[in-house]
Amino acid sequence: MVQIADPGHGQEPPPGTQIAPNDARRREMTGLALFMARRIVALVLTVLVGVYMTIIIANVGGQVDDLRVIQIRADVSDAVRSDPGVAAADRLALIEAQVALEVERLGLDRPFVWRSLDYLRRAMLLDLGRAEQMSSDLGSRQVSAIITERLPATLLLFGTANVLVFVVSIVVALRLSRRYGSWLDRTIVALAPSSAAPGWFYGLFLILIFAFAWPLFPSGGMVAVPPPETALRYAMSVVHHMVLPVTAIFISSIFVSIYSWRTFFLIHSSEDHVEMARAKGLPDRMIEARYILRPTLPSIVTSFLLMLIGLWSGAIILEQVFNWPGLGTLLFQAIGFRDTPVIIGGVVIFAYLLALTVFLLDFLYAALDPRVRVATP
What we know:
single chain; mainly alpha; MetI-like fold; 0% strand; disordered N terminus
């Protein structure tokens, strides 16, 4: 509840004094802004810690930078020795000078603590530098270009799968809440524990069945090779390749979602105000939308976004199973190449996606649930 400010002279406002609508609205917006600001600061600090730990681990406490210095020395030595214009007596001094110049340019001559903090600063600003081993399909070595090229594929795959899970779960759960104890309800309850297995687990079986035993869908990739020339055929090829990975994600999430949300609907469908609405003869559709779905929507959104966070973390393995050219596959390849800038860049993007999901969860929860009020100073 928003309280009226002290009008002055250290006296409390008289009982029954009403707050001006503009003042109440201003105080509510101020409280909301402060609440969001605190959440943003907390999420930024969480991302900072996670990214910095990734920098330490990916660099093995500075050992990868030491290997970079060794690689720089080897490259410079090969270049100098293959140059016929450099006298043999001058080669050693020239190698040392060029190595020292390159090490200084990359900042590898500073202690690792300061280098790691500089890596953290650049990573948080998305100044991800150049990849050491990898490149984009267009040949760019910029980490930002490599990630930008792969990120849409991940968003397309997981966005499509999660929208399907959300819509189907709500529709089926509402139906089960009207048919409690039916064969379909008992089947969903029995299948709910199957959601404990991740999506890539089901993906393996889907590939074996529908890509090899009955070759109805491709086993991996995002588009046919060579890619179709027209936009329509290209989109149809992408949809064809999406069927198996989207199905794997769908199977791994749908049963537990239906079971959880059906429980919410059952609890609220037995409330007194719902029974009163039925007694008044209101249509079932109106009762479900206004008196059952709306009060449970905050809990549904919360569980859905928490499930989405779990799916982000499993993107690496699932994309690798289906050879999906997304951010998860990129991160897996970067680990194999020990390409530290790409590893850090991929982790930063995933961290931002997770933080954005949590921030969206807080905002939607306050917007959807009328019982939630932000405390004002």
